[in-house]
């Protein structure tokens, strides 16, 4: 390996720079973004555009392969650092190109030596990034101290964490958390960074786990950084933060539960001690969330030993109990969701469920089994309502898409979209949490073929590379029709505000003149994401002038009218809403949309 003196510059290596900065102030919190880089570590831009993405990838690939062919790693590292600087490729593009290279089948020791020379003696971010990319599949325990130190530098945290994750998941998670700026999380992360385990555990017991305080990925990194899965089951104060972090990782379309290595163990521990929880509404809601994810969500796909998933699900439901009816409308809706969802899940767990395909005498698969569930999220969080599809016992959307939730039942189920007619029909089953135009969607073609219904022709337009495409599925047509009909008729998941929304939407479809008389077009009608007890009506049209008259020359915009649940029957509330839309221009008592 080349020594620092052999480098073509007198600048210190980035590793030595980070090591010395940290040694000078070991107790100081990490600055936002990481420790500052030394001068010259990232060459200044002179305004000349760098190579395009494809050209950069090809250039880096060629340079790295040439370096790997050199039998002297130190010399190869020096030449590669010089050539990367000359090529003008940004460090992120360097890392991406190197990380995309297949691991070397031969001369792995030479490649590892080159990676170590780059990471330990490199003086530019691009050179170190190349070394980190090589270390992702080649790193060994002796690399851990160098990776932990390099990850403290601005711009290298995520790259170092990726190389560190297979070797020391706790250290990798801490590197990612060190860049978090949230006030609620910062004291705990600082305690972990200085190795103060006692303070970190004390702070963990008081950590808020509401969505506004803690994202799902943050929850996973925090669980990894504190070693939550390895803590003793009887650790004081362990149960409530474990429940909160597990629920944050598990629920919702951006679930992180399958990326968490100790998920099964933590589920087992929480279920075993769930009856010890105080009977608070939030605890009950999190237990129901965990049970719902075990039944039809991402957590069902974890590597469960035979029989354990059902046992854990049953233990969670047994600990939920019967919540009291709160006075606050939002809490009242949450309590009703707990009762409703727990009852539905309990009914499912008592049914006999075929986990695999039915097979013929030869063992070859004949038909698959479809199960349809509508999953409603905890009303205490932004509430996602999605149609979940399980094929042979496996949730389909997280298995083959993973960018967002299944479609709302109004779009995938209640409109008859899944029915198999005489002609093939393409159905959208899921959309990315952002939008289809941003990160894609999942489509399938549904067609009837003799005694079978077939799902094939899968498309994921706009989705990034991810899970493999689903195969063609063949269902017994009679069983398929029964399941679709059952799911369409089973409205037990719905709550009053949602039913009110259906009735209003139906009325606007049947009587387009209600909005048409005001020069307006209908938008969507549903429930509020953050306040599911509120029905929301949207419509589009030009805004009113200051004198209250329509301004047809103005560009159309969206308007929203919110209807909080007042306890009256949905049909009565919907009729009143439609009457008010008819009698007065609805723009007068609505708010502008985004």
**How many H/I helices?**
24
| Cα gyration radius (Å) | 28 Å
* Strand order, largest beta sheet: 6-7-8-9
Let me know the largest β-sheet. Answer: 4 strands, antiparallel
Per DSSP, what share of the residues sits in E-state strands of 2 or more residues? 5-15%
Strand segment count: 13
Report the principal-axis shape: globular
Oligomer: single chain
Distance between the termini: 58 Å
Instruction: State the secondary-structure class.
Output: alpha+beta
What's this model, at a glance?
The chain is an alpha+beta fold and 594 residues long.
Task: Provide keyphrases for this structure.
594 residues; alpha+beta; four-stranded antiparallel sheet; 24 helices
Structure description:
By secondary structure, this protein is α+β, with helices and mostly antiparallel strands. Helix content is 44%, strand content 12%. The strands form four sheets. The chain has a four-stranded antiparallel β-sheet. Strands 10-11-12-13 form a four-stranded antiparallel β-sheet, covered by helices on one side. α3 packs across α5 (108-121). It is globular. The N and C termini lie far apart (58 Å).
């Amino acid at each position: 390996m080349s020594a620092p003196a052999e480098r073509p510059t007198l600048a210190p290596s980035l590793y030595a720079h980070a090591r010395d900065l940290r040694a000078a102030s070991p107790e100081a919190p990490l600055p936002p973004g990481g420790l500052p880089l030394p001068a010259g570590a990232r060459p200044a831009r002179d305004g000349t555009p760098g190579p395009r993405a494809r050209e950069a990838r090809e250039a880096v690939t060629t340079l790295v392969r040439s370096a790997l062919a050199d039998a002297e790693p130190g010399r190869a590292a020096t030449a590669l650092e010089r050539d990367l600087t000359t090529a003008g490729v940004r460090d992120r593009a360097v890392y991406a190109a190197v990380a995309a290279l297949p691991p070397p089948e031969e001369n792995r020791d030479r490649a590892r030596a080159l990676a170590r020379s780059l990471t330990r003696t490199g003086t530019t971010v691009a050179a170190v990034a190349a070394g980190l990319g090589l270390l992702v599949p080649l790193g060994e325990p002796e690399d851990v101290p160098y990776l932990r130190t390099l990850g403290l530098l601005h711009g290298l945290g995520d790259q170092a964490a990726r190389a560190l994750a297979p070797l020391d998941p706790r250290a990798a998670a801490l590197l990612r958390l060190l860049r978090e700026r949230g006030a609620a999380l910062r004291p705990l992360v600082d305690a972990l960074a200085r190795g103060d385990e006692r303070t970190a555990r004390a702070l963990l017991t008081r950590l808020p786990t509401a969505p506004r305080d803690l994202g799902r990925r943050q929850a996973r990194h925090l669980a990894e950084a504190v070693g939550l899965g390895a803590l003793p089951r009887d650790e004081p104060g362990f149960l409530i933060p474990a429940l909160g972090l597990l629920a944050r990782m598990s629920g919702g379309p951006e679930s992180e539960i399958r990326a968490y290595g100790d998920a099964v163990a933590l589920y087992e521990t929480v279920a075993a001690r769930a009856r010890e929880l105080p009977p608070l509404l939030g605890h009950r809601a999190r237990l129901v969330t965990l049970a719902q994810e075990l039944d039809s969500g991402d957590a069902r796909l974890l590597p469960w030993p035979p029989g354990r998933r059902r046992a854990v699900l049953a233990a969670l439901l047994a600990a939920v109990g019967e919540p009291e009816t709160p006075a606050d409308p939002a809490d009242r809706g949450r309590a009703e969701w707990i009762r409703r969802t727990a009852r539905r899940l309990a009914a499912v767990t008592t049914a006999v469920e075929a986990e695999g395909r039915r097979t013929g005498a030869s063992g070859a698969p004949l038909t698959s089994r479809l199960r349809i569930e509508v999953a409603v999220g905890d009303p205490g969080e932004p509430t996602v309502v999605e149609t979940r599809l399980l094929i042979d016992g496996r949730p389909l959307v997280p298995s083959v898409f993973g960018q967002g939730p299944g479609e709302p039942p109004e779009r995938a189920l209640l409109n008859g979209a899944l029915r198999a007619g005489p002609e093939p029909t393409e159905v959208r089953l899921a959309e990315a949490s952002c939008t289809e135009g941003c990160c894609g969607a999942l489509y399938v073609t549904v067609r009837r073929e003799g005694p079978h219904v077939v799902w094939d022709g899968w498309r994921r337009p706009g989705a990034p590379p991810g899970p493999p495409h689903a195969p063609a599925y063949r269902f017994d047509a009679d069983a398929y029709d029964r399941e679709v009909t059952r799911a369409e008729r089973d409205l037990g998941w719905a709550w009053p505000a949602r039913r009110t929304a259906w009735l209003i939407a139906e009325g606007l479809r049947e009587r387009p003149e209600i909005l048409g008389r005001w020069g307006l077009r209908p938008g969507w009608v549903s429930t509020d994401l953050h306040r599911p007890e509120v029905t929301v009506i949207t419509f589009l049209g030009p805004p009113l002038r200051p004198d209250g008259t329509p301004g047809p020359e103005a560009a159309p915009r969206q308007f929203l009218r919110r209807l909080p649940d007042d306890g009256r029957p949905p049909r009565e509330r919907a009729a009143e809403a439609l009457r008010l839309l008819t009698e007065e221009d609805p723009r007068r008592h609505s708010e502008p949309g985004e």
